[in-house]
Model the fold of this input.
Amino acid sequence: MRRAGRWLAGAALAAAFAATPAAAQQMAAPVDVQFSLFYRIFSYDRNLERRAASGLVIGVVFQPDVRASVLARNDAMRQPVPEGVGFAVRMVAIPLSERTDVDSAAGAAGCNVLYVTPLRAVDVAEIARSARARDILTLTGVPEYVLEGVAVGIGVRGDRPEILVNLNASRQQGADFSAQLLRLARVW
Done:
């Protein structure tokens, strides 16, 4: 009986550690690092004044039944706005379900930025198309989503965060990033 108890405890511990890398593989950099960079990236957008005229409303798109998505939402909603940003920032959670229309939800919340968390069985390209139609800039910490049409992402190269920019998507979503930022980023 004692061996069985140890085996169960060991199996539970192994399962906990096995679950951690799966979530970590989806988002290359921690959410606090991502948002620290996003706020800096905003300053390189020559259309920021137009976009943030009445403040930024960042919609956090997440799936309530996907643990990695909920954790990313929780972390994103807790991120402080750095001092000296120069505009008001409000975060709004946008839960996805089979009945959620991201376009309508983002419009109703007045979003001008969408942060896309790790999602499962969702067409991220469709979210990007909806954002483009509403002139909403999209951000993510999932590098693959940049290839699917999200404008800006944060990945990792070696042990350092890397800015990823889908230039076509960012322009279609109303951003006009300076050449200075584009030299720092990996651009598609």
Q: What stands out?
A: The two ends are 58 Å apart (CA to CA). The CA atoms of residues 62 and 95 lie 5 Å apart. The longest helix spans residues 2-26. Residues 1-25 have pLDDT under 50 and may be disordered.
